Amino acid sequence: MRNAYVDQFPTEARVIKAAFWSSFIALAIGGSLGLVQALHRTDVFRFLESPDYYTVLTAHGVLLAISFTIFFLVGVFTWAVTTSLDRGVEDIRFTWGWYAMMVVGTVLVGVTIFAGFLEEPPVVLGSELYADVLFTFYAPLQAHPFFYIGLVLFVVGSWLAGVDWFRTWWAWRSENPDERIPLPTFMVLTTTLFWYICTLGVALSILVFLLPWSLGLVDSVNPLLTRTLFWYFGHAVVYFWLMPTYILWYTMLPKFSGGKLFSDPLARVVFVLFLLLSTPLGIHHQYLDPGIAEGFKFIAMTNTMFLLLPSLLTAFTVVASMEHGARQRGGEGYVGWLTALPWRDPIFTGMALAGLMFAAAGFSGMINAGMNINYLVHNTWWVVGHFHLTVGTAVALTFMASAYWFIPQLTGKELWNRSVALGQVLLWFIGMTFMSNAMHRSGLFGMPRRTAEPQYQGFEFEPAVGTVGEINAQVALGAVLLTVSLALFLLNMVMTSFNETSDAIPDNTFAGTLSGPEDSPAILDNLALWTAIAVVLVIFAYTLPLASIIDGSGLFGSDIDGFQLGIETGRALVLESIREVVP
Ligand code: HAS
Ligand code: CU
Questions:
Q1: Is the minimum distance from the CB of 337 to ligand 1 under 6 angstroms?
Q2: Which atom of ligand 1 is closest in space to residue 301's alpha carbon?
Q3: Catalytic residue among 71, 233, 348, 387
Q4: Domain 5-581 carries which CATH code?
Q5: Looking at the whole model, is its pTM more than 0.90?
Q6: Residue ranges of the chain with per-residue pLDDT less than 50
Q7: Percentage with pLDDT > 70 across the chain
Q8: Residue 387 designated active-site
């Protein structure tokens, strides 16, 4: 008898499938735009006017970093909760409701951004419809109100999704009062809790400042305040993308490796640490911002270094679980076991390569996080290299690899072509190796990010090894390989949906554990306690910086010129110091 997800939960499977397809559409459009901009700024092939570059970059960032990731993860979370509690959602209409809200939000944001390509964007609500504010959308850049309204709908939709997962768990708990929270649900709930904490910042920023400002209700805003509120959310959001990846690495990858999860208690500790520390460190994105005292930046750096711990624990636990799998499959030796892993399986290989790249990404993250060394890499292509390894590979490649498992679970149809899938994940790994390596290298030599014309001010970027031409060629080559990989992924998804229903779909089960929940101290499941501590940490980390920003230039500030001047001066100083290093 078949025991795929769709057989257990046919109605939930439909919502999850819809969320996945929304995510794939965002991936298709956002990914294609990535190729356009890589070729444009490396000067390999240009068909855009340079101002349109920023519209493309905004669409690329928003569609991939916000829509692709979050649509996919709400699907993963719904699957994880319902499967591990073995019960459906409380009210499927509510589930469709939050999904629909997220779709309407995305469409509104998308239409607003894409209207920017028109010669004369239509005037709606008294202003031109466009939004080339990039995915970080803080002031002084301003978008059309629709952009902000769309974002609000999307975020509120995700909040309601959280309510849905909590309701399912509450219902389960009332019937199973003495049982431990199953690990996958525990992971979803802790993640949802920090998502609530961090999105408060962005909600405040949009509803109190950016939206009224773009509607013309207030004349000015305090750019540093909106930046700080954005980064209050903007670091935690990266862990919102990462946690579904970790859920898959902890609860599925050991099984795909042929083994069991090394430790359930350690996994719980990791997720508690993310709940505690994901938010009070956003200022590490603002080391170069004038107007925030060094001491606050130092606190953010310290918290960031502490937050390396759960990822290092993850590296240990997940690799130990893989090793256990390999040894079950007959693997031997200190490293020889690696060859016993199922490398022909695209699901396993995609996730393992994503993990491997994340190890490199962790190192570039540690460099970003150092206050002093950040001055060298901030606002350069290094950072872009960093996040293409993190969200662009650890997360995106894990999602794609897992889709090869999920789509059969959700449709009851077998994957169209496993060899194409294997080629696809390998191609992503190779393409990203070229692209991100070249980005990191050029970033070290001051190659700026977020510009269509990297050679501005006549500044020449000469890497220590190789030439700018060679770096550009590697980025362009990488981008082409990634695009081919993306096309192969989408092809496999589309063709799978045309397949016949099959009886050969594996059962919908999680990996077993070597050390299970019975070994976890009960206090780990005390969500109220951890949430309270998380809130206290946020209050400690943010009250004084926010108070001093408001004190310095007002709640609705008017000192935009001063802020711009600060940024310009900072940039000039950095360029000067780079010139000293690179004669
Ligand atoms: Fe970051 C900038 C610091 C992780 C995303 N980051 C960004 C931006 C993005 C981003 C999008 O401190 C740019 C934002 C913008 O537009 O300006 N980041 C860190 C640190 C970590 C980190 C310390 N980042 C992420 C993750 C992201 C992400 C995760 C997305 C998903 N990042 C920064 C800083 C900046 C920054 C500064 C600002 C830079 C600036 O100046 O603008 C850490 O969380 C990383 C910890 C990771 C590890 C690695 C552990 C290894 C594991 C692999 C296990 C292996 C397996 C497979 C499973 C310590 C878990 C083994 C395979 C076998 C075959 C055996
Ligand atoms: Cu960060």
A1: no
A2: 12
A3: 387
A4: 1.20.210.10
A5: yes
A6: 583
A7: 95
A8: yes
